[in-house]
Write a structure and sequence with these properties.
The chain is an alpha+beta fold and about 60 residues long. It has one domain. A two-stranded parallel ribbon has the order 1-2. It is flat. The mean pLDDT is about 90.
Length: about 60
């Protein structure tokens, strides 16, 4: 199952996100939201929406 992992550029999770996700998923895409911290949807909803739209387009391209 495709998974999108998001992190804020200044989030403490940014440094460990890839290794954490590798433990639970195989098909993972990563996106870093620039200039943001931990509360991505509140801090920058447009960037989160863009990341989701881009991920959806990527997945639809792979599975159509």
């Amino acid at each position: 199952m495709p998974v999108l992992a998001l992190a804020g550029e200044s989030s403490a999770f940014n440094a460990v996100l890839k290794s954490m996700m590798a433990e639970v998923a195989e098909n993972v895409s990563f996106a870093i939201i620039e200039k943001e911290g931990h509360w991505l949807a509140e801090e920058n909803p447009c960037a989160v929406a863009r990341a989701l739209i881009d991920f959806d387009a990527l997945i639809l391209g792979h599975y159509n």
